[in-house]
């Protein structure tokens, strides 16, 4: 298992992919520093930074890059057959790869979210802690979902951005019901639980629903990915 | 009967039917046109599998939705003006254009890099410059189709419905010119970013990351600076978003309203935005040329 994890880590960290993974949290922290220097290090700015940049932009992108990154290149190159020909259970491969993606999201997503919010407001109003937990919870769901997409289709990244941009951002704004099926909203709902700031408007998704949804999506997607790997066929280049 | 005969000649060139090409040599110009045409078809998935066509055509349909709503609205309410004013169309629909750019740019550049066929291209009369110009032209044309089609459908609809008042001919023509600027800038940027990796998936992620990153940074800074009532700085922060660069130039030159209710700072912002567009486009072009010079020798 540690070999499978090692290969997956190397696939994301050891290649150009890592630059994108580093650039996004670096941008978040740079923005926090800039806002501090501009003298607007208050709860409102911290919330805005976390909601628009942290959860709204960085988290889905990191989820996309890490979630598809742990498996899609292997499928693309066809080297996945070496892994699949070993006597390792396919669901175990899926679970290991999910673990790798989730740990990367914690490192590049949740931790910088905490750092950026801490730079602005310290531990005030539970913003830093709340968004770190929220980003981690949302990261789990994104990692699992995009891992599954990576196994199912070669167009995983394209479908992933269509989901994150059109469904979560555009449809979610106009159709309130669509927010129930938005990982970003679940992450915000989790972050809201730790919040004591009056500037944070209550997310439209309840915490009970959000937690169950995160659990169902995460477990369901990883299990389904494992199931797909059991009957995996390599498709040729189009 | 003698056992030993003269030895067979060691090497024989068999005639296996290769034919010479005796037709006309169409030359470099023709190769350029062919490459552009092939790339443009590829951007819409034409000549590829059904799956490759889904994304570009779904996005084209989404771009046409405001046109349908506008025509229906003008017919029912008998009022002039589409839901999105012509010059603001591209900036308002920026998400769709960005997704198209992100998903289709790697389609144009990734396979040639991945399968290392570029030295084959460049062993023909096609030069690195030709290749880059062909790819940029194809992507720009694809983006132009995505904008010109809905704009023109809306305008024709407006003329046919003919509600009271003057038709927005001037604004329509301005938007047609403006979309050329959008297309060229976006094509250069998108292809430059996508050409940095031979992997399609990563290329898609990188282009969309650029769009989301600039959009989010500009939005965060604008809202926070606005809430500190530093309206001038807030207006400048808008210009971090490349789509609003073109929109700011549009406001500067035509004096029409800005997209999404933006307010750009007055004075120097128009010329600065124009410089920004030129700089971004040139940067994208330079990255492409350097990238392909390197790939040609590899």
From TrEMBL, chain A:
Keywords: Membrane, Transmembrane, Transmembrane helix
Assigned GO CC terms: plasma membrane
Entry GO MF terms: ABC-type transporter activity
Annotated TM spans: 18-38, 50-72, 93-121, 127-149, 156-175, 205-225
Top-rank lineage group of the source organism: Bacteria
Keyword Lipoprotein tagged: no
Keyword Transmembrane helix found: yes
Pfam families named among the record's database cross-references: ABC2_membrane_4 (PF12730)
Name assigned to this protein: ABC transporter permease
Species: Spongiactinospora gelatinilytica
Organism placement in taxonomy: Bacteria, Bacillati, Actinomycetota, Actinomycetes, Streptosporangiales
UniProtKB/TrEMBL annotation, chain B:
Organism for this UniProt entry: Spongiactinospora gelatinilytica
Segments traversing the membrane: 54-77, 89-111, 131-161, 173-196, 202-222, 273-292
Protein name: ABC transporter permease
Coiled-coil ranges per UniProt: none
Domain of life: Bacteria
Keyword Transmembrane helix: yes
Key words, A-Z: Membrane, Transmembrane, Transmembrane helix
Lineage: Bacteria, Bacillati, Actinomycetota, Actinomycetes, Streptosporangiales
């Amino acid at each position: 298992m540690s070999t499978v994890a090692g290969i997956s880590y190397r696939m994301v960290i050891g290649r150009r992919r890592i630059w994108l993974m580093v650039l996004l949290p670096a941008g978040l922290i740079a923005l926090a520093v800039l806002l501090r220097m501009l003298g607007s290090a208050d709860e409102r700015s911290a919330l805005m930074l976390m909601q628009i940049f942290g959860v709204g932009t960085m988290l889905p992108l990191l989820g996309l890059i890490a979630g598809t990154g742990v498996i899609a290149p292997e499928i693309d190159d066809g080297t996945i057959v070496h892994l699949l020909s070993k006597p390792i259970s396919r669901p175990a491969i899926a679970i290991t790869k999910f673990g790798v993606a989730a740990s990367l999201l914690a490192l590049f997503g949740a931790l910088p979210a905490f750092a950026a919010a801490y730079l602005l407001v310290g531990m005030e109003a539970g913003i830093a802690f709340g968004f770190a937990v929220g980003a981690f919870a949302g990261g789990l769901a994104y990692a699992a979902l995009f891992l599954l997409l990576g196994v199912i289709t070669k167009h995983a990244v394209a479908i992933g951005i269509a989901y994150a941009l059109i469904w979560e951002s555009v449809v979610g704004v106009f159709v309130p019901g669509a927010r129930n099926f938005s990982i970003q909203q679940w992450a915000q709902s989790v972050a809201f639980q730790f919040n004591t700031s009056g500037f944070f408007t209550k997310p439209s998704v309840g915490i009970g629903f959000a937690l169950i949804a995160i659990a169902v999506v995460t477990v369901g997607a990883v299990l389904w990915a494992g199931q797909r790997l059991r009957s995996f066929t390599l498709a040729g280049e189009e | 009967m003698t056992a030993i005969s003269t030895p067979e000649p060691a090497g024989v060139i068999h005639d296996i039917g290769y034919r010479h090409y005796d037709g006309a040599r169409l030359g470099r110009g023709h190769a350029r046109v062919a490459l552009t045409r092939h790339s443009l078809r590829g951007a819409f998935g034409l000549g590829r599998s059904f799956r490759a066509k889904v994304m570009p055509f779904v996005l084209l349909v989404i771009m046409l939705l405001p046109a349908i709503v506008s025509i229906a609205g003008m017919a029912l309410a008998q009022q002039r003006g589409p839901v999105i004013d012509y010059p603001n169309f591209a900036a308002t629909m920026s998400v769709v254009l960005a997704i198209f750019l992100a998903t289709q740019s790697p389609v144009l550049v990734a396979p040639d890099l991945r399968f290392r066929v570029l030295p084959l291209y460049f062993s023909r009369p096609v030069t690195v410059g030709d290749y880059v110009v062909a790819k940029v032209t194809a992507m720009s044309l694809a983006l132009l189709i995505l904008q010109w089609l809905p704009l023109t459908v809306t305008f024709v609809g407006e003329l046919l419905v003919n509600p009271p008042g003057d038709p927005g001919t001037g604004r329509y023509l301005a938007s047609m010119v403006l979309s050329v600027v959008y297309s060229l800038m976006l094509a250069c940027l998108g292809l430059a970013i996508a050409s940095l990796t031979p992997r399609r998936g990563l290329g898609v992620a990188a282009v969309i990351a650029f769009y989301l990153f600039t959009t989010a940074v500009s939005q965060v800074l604008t809202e926070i600076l606005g809430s500190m009532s530093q309206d001038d700085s807030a207006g400048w922060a808008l210009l971090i978003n490349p789509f609003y660069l073109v929109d700011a130039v549009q406001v500067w030159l035509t004096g029409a309203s800005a997209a999404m209710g933006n307010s750009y700072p007055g004075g120097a912002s128009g010329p600065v935005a124009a410089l920004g567009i030129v700089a971004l486009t040139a940067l994208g072009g330079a990255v492409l040329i350097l990238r392909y010079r390197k790939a040609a020798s590899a």
